[in-house]
């Protein structure tokens, strides 16, 4: 039998919190520019703020990449299309349940810690994966496509609920 591979890239929506952070950074940078005229070494504060602005603005530009390969799911966070960080990895053997958000079967896992790796746009169906590791329940929210769901269902048909 051949290997099964599916991947999907999801861009994260800019939230109000992201906009507030950007506005606050811009305001602090303007204050730093005015501090140049008051503080003798104010130029260093300006350079520090511009560097911080560049770093944080890039960190707020986020995409999630889902990769499913033969029972292993990996979710990477890509910041500004430059830096990649693995934020979640698991095997389907360790999964308790995969179902669309709002499914009644998920009610018994309402106290689990939630990891949201969705885009936040609301147009794609959101699914939840439930994992229990060392007695700690985890709810992973993500937006798989049909091909990825098919591969997960082939791997663990009793654990996957599809729409």
Write up what this structure looks like.
- The protein is an alpha+beta fold and 163 residues long.
- It is 29% helix and 34% strand.
- It contains 3 helices and 8 strands, in the order E-H-H-E-E-E-E-E-E-E-H.
- A 4-stranded antiparallel sheet has the order 1-2-3-4, covered by helices on one side.
- Strand 2 and strand 3 form a beta hairpin.
- The longest helix has 20 residues, at 16-35.
- The two termini are 27 Å apart.
- The mean pLDDT is 92.
Question: Keywords, please?
Answer:
single chain; 163 residues; alpha+beta; four-stranded antiparallel beta sheet; 34% strand
What count of helical segments does DSSP give? 3
Order of the strands making up the biggest sheet: 1-2-3-4
Instruction: Characterize the quaternary organization of these chains.
Output: single chain
Tertiary shape: elongated
Question: What percentage of amino acids are in beta strands?
Answer: 25-35%
Question: What's the number of extended β-strand segments?
Answer: 8
Q: Give the structural class.
A: alpha+beta
